[in-house]
Amino acid sequence: MHQLDDGKMLPLMEDFYSLQGEGFHTGKAAYFLRIGGCDVGCNFCDVKESWDKNRHPLTEVDKIVGRVLASQANSVVVTGGEPCLYNLNYLCQSLKKYAISLHIETSGSEHLSGAWDWICFSPKNKTAIFPEFYIIANELKMIIETSDDFSWAEQNASKVNANCICYLQPEWSKFDKITPVIVDYILKNPKWKISLQSHKYMKIP
């Protein structure tokens, strides 16, 4: 457990160099780190295999950093699972030495560690949420599965800081049905933007 506590090892599910597919940074090249383990367990999650941290080998952060540098990526996106389950200070410190921009996607169910250039906050209903994320989030991403989800989205949008960019993203399996509803909602509520999972259309990781 000490190896996880000091942040020098993480249960890495996968890492790869690709394009950011959704949200504010859509289309930009980034190195992705998917950390295993999740305390939320969304029914619509498309990477349920990430939930059990014991399925994913502890990997030395120094080795992860080496692979990032070999890719020549200038930004890294840390996702999961729920990456905030772990101490990410060492990872951030190691990558910052090379002037790499650091992004994280989190549900806000755990306290944040590490220093980040971009925080994508995607809170889930009926889950504990740490209020700090409403203050520090750069991007609020709300997943819309049914029309009932707009109320939850608005509850969260009312709490974020004034500079946070607010996105509604159609849940992938409901895309055809819910996207027109989201479009109509944004036309009536233009503080929102739509986020599409473009990487799925391009069939890239």
Task: Characterize the structure shown.
This protein has 205 residues and is an alpha/beta fold. Helices cover 27% and strands 25% of the residues. It has a single domain, classed as TIM Barrel. The chain has helices at 2-5, 61-71, 89-96, 132-136, 149-157, 175-188, 198-202, and strands at residues 9-19, 29-35, 58-60, 75-79, 101-106, 118-121, 139-144, 165-170, 192-194. A nine-stranded mixed beta sheet has the order 3-1-2-4-5-6-7-8-9. Helix 4 (132-136) links the parallel strand 6 and strand 7 (139-144). The protein is globular, with a radius of gyration of 17 Å. The two termini are 30 Å apart. 34% of the residues are buried. The model has no long low-confidence stretch (mean pLDDT 94).
Please provide the ordered H/E string of secondary-structure elements: HEEEHEHEEHEHEHEH
Tell me the CATH architecture.
Answer: Alpha-Beta Barrel
CATH class: Alpha Beta
Terminal residue distance: 30 Å
What CATH calls the topology is TIM Barrel
Number of domains: 1
With helices defined by DSSP (H or I, 4 residues minimum), what is the helix count? Answer: 7
Q: Helix content range of the residues, please?
A: 25-40%
Largest β-sheet summary: 9 strands, mixed
The global form is globular
User: Average pLDDT, to the nearest integer?
Assistant: 94
Q: What Rg is obtained from the alpha carbons, in whole angstroms?
A: 17 Å
Please indicate the percent range of residues in DSSP E strands (runs of 2 or more).
Answer: 15-25%
- Determine the oligomeric state from the structure: single chain
CATH superfamily: Aldolase class I
Low-confidence stretches: none
Q: Strand order, main sheet: write it out.
A: 3-1-2-4-5-6-7-8-9
Q: How many E strands? A: 9
Overall SS class = alpha/beta
